[in-house]
């Protein structure tokens, strides 16, 4: 696996996390929000904070970064709209295809691109169309992250025994 792609995923998650937290905080400060909006705003801010932490950990080559990045890409993958729930997250860069069935039973298919951070987490939206889509970069990044194995045999990690220490601790049975 090319280190370029892992670094790109990490950068997009970091940028998406920072911008997302900024957008959420700005929205909460400037909007007249009720208790429900505050709760959803805190949930969205927590997701963006997790994206930032995932990106930083992935950049440093930690196993947690790989797992957290898989979770972040899984969050970014589906795009869903209905009257009960609207769920969309984008981190850094997102390009997705979607299909929507309008209230007039007209099918609409499209393609959208989002930069920096984007989210919609809403419940009980009157007259929202029913639709589903998926993120193309999230599909590709998930495949890359599943194949990626961080290198844990560095000298900086004291919890990983060196080959000499592992050899010295083996039990030898006399023959």
What features would you describe in this structure?
By secondary structure, the protein is of the alpha+beta class. Helices cover 49% and strands 25% of the residues. A hairpin with a 3-residue loop joins strand 1 (78-81) and strand 2. Helix 2 packs across helix 3. The model is unreliable at 153-157 (pLDDT under 50).
Mind telling me the C-alpha Rg? 21 Å
Approximate shape: globular
In terms of per-residue confidence, which ranges show pLDDT below 50 for 5 or more consecutive residues?
Answer: 153-157
Instruction: Note the beta-strand portion.
Output: 25-35%
N- and C-termini, Cα separation: 45 Å
Q: How many structurally independent domains?
A: 1
Largest sheet: 4 strands, antiparallel
Element-level helix/strand string: HHHEEEEHH
Q: State the helicity in percent bands.
A: 40-55%
User: Mean pLDDT score, rounded?
Assistant: 87
> Number of DSSP helices?
5
Q: Assign the structural class, choosing from mainly alpha, mainly beta, alpha/beta, alpha+beta, or little secondary structure.
A: alpha+beta
Based on DSSP secondary structure assignment, what is the total number of beta strands? 4
Secondary-structure topology with pairs:
Elements lengths: L2 H28 L4 H25 L3 H14 L1 E4 L3 E17 L5 E17 L6 E6 H12 L15 H6 L7
Antiparallel strand pairs: 1-2, 1-4, 2-3, 2-4
Helix pairs in contact: 1-2, 2-3, 3-4
TL;DR?
The chain is 49% helix and 25% strand.
Which structural traits does this protein have?
alpha+beta; single chain; 175 residues; 49% helix; globular; 4 strands
């Amino acid at each position: 696996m090319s280190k370029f792609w892992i670094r790109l995923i990490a950068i997009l998650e970091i940028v998406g996390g920072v911008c997302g937290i900024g957008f959420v905080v700005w929205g909460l400060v400037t909007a007249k929000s009720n208790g429900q909006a505050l709760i959803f705003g805190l949930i969205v801010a927590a997701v963006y904070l997790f994206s930032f932490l995932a990106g930083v950990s992935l950049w440093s080559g930690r196993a947690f970064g790989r797992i957290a990045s898989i979770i972040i890409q899984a969050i970014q993958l589906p795009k869903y709209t209905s009257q009960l729930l609207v769920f969309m997250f984008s981190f850094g860069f997102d390009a997705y295809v979607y299909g929507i069935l309008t209230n007039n039973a007209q099918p609409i298919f499209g393609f959208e691109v989002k930069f920096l951070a984007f989210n919609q987490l809403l419940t009980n939206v009157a007259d929202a169309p029913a639709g589903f889509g998926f993120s193309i970069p999230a599909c590709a990044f998930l495949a890359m992250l599943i194949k990626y194995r961080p290198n844990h045999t560095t000298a900086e990690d004291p919890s990983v025994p060196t080959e000499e220490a592992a050899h010295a601790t083996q039990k030898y049975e006399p023959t």
